[in-house]
Give the backbone structure.
Amino acid sequence: MFLLNRGEWGGVLLVRGDCSLKTKPIGGAIFAGLVLCSLGFGVEFLGCMLGLNGCDCCKPAYCEEICCEQTCCEPCPKLACCEPQGKGKQGGFSLGVDTFVKNEYWNWFEGPSHDNQYDYGYQRTRLNFKYASPHWTAFVQPQLVNMFGVPDNACKKPPEGPLGMGCLYYIHNNTTTPWSMGVHQAYINLHNTDKSDFSFKFGRFEYSDGLEVLRKSDGKHFNMLQKIRLGDRMISPFGWSAFSRSFDGVVSQYDNTNTNVTTSFFFPTQGGWEENINTTIDDIRITTVTVTSKRGSNIPGMEIAGFYYNYQDLRDVTQRVDNTGQTYAPSVDINIHMFGGHAVGMYDIGPGTMDVLLWGGAQVGKWYELDQDAYAFDVEGGYQFTNMPAKPWVRVGYYIGSGDANPQDGDHGTFFQMAPGTRKYNLLPFCNLMNVQDFFVQLIAHPRKKLMVRVDYHVWHLDKANDRWYMGSGPTQKHGKIFGYIGRPSSGHSDLAQELDVLVNYNFNPHWKAKVSYSHIFGQDVISGVYNENKDADYASAEIVFEF
């Protein structure tokens, strides 16, 4: 095994069950391939790493793991280690890597201070160390992030505030080149055994609400719908930011053929815009209970779930974000209980597949000295023409996250997102899902097998004109002056914006892919009340991803 230069080049030795020692390539394909060729592995090994050898890359001597996953070419040879081993026979140590390089361009709304155009870039590399035995798995994932070109002049006084996300990186880290090396995940998972349907995970891990059950038997189409339109609404690893977020705590599951019960208790870590990811925010406590009736168990073709989330925040953070007019507090004092559920169904009808998604919940509890009384719900439907070229998938939906109509009545009616991942729901996250109504139309197509194109169009309104225009993805620091959300004035208006998003993904091979996105905001009355020179905004990004 060898590793060079922060994981940019390398190779892997893998032991799987009772299979012999295998060699797998990771990253830096050209350089590593030349090194391996010089050691006698031959040019076919290089071709396998680049995905250029066709079915040669399925030769057991080269890329056996790819063959086992049957993602390289069809058909692959039948290999002993590809066959199911059964419980009690699998195990071994493996090492993987995922890394990407990304550049982002921002042309934020423009006010009198200007400085709203800039770009910056970063790379994030994670190594995946895993040991699996019949009854437990250990996983450690260190992370290295390097940023460059972060603007130091994109932070303005309210109401303009941050001119895009570049400002948020700068005010968190006070440098134009933030970087960090830390532990993103490190946990032990006690597996189900032949006599038990229980599992128990403890340590540092990722958690996405709504994705407690993802089964291959439900199909890629169904799982994709869950990932892009259900997961990360309330609790998320915030993976679209450079430094991301983790959770320290425990997750337990009971799982059988028809039902899954997931319970958890954890603390979020710093991260997102903050480079110091190793610090646990132990003044925030999150508890979840989710009971899922798996797809088809009670209603044909449909998954149904009910959940309870509790979010307690007692941080020594002085910024207060709501519509009361108070911008300072000695500390945070929030304790919110949320009760809700979702239903996701998918059915073969006519020349394609129809889908339906429902999600919603109500919140009660305490918001500083106020009583929390808020709600949110989402209803969506779609149809994919599976027999047409490019298999177009058309979806429409309506979402509402309640706002607060009267800041003086003793109630806080603004729906609170806890610790979400907002970019799934608008690719230019100039707002989040608090005090908004969103009507959207979405088209997803696959012009080629390896190419995916997604186009979204949103019409955004504030739910209550007496509330604020909110932006943010939740807590990023343990203490200080940064709460995790931003609230800008509405100027008494509710017409927020229209948004066009375009996302293109291309998978070169099982390890390499590229992503590009472009978003344009057509600002309306709320935005022009804050940014009086240009109420429109643009965002573009490009990234290269390597996963192994």
Remarks:
- The two ends are 15 Å apart (CA to CA).
- Helices lie at 29-38, 43-50, 60-69, 165-173, 220-229, 525-528.
- Residues 195 and 473 are 41 Å apart (CA to CA).
- The longest strand covers residues 92-107.
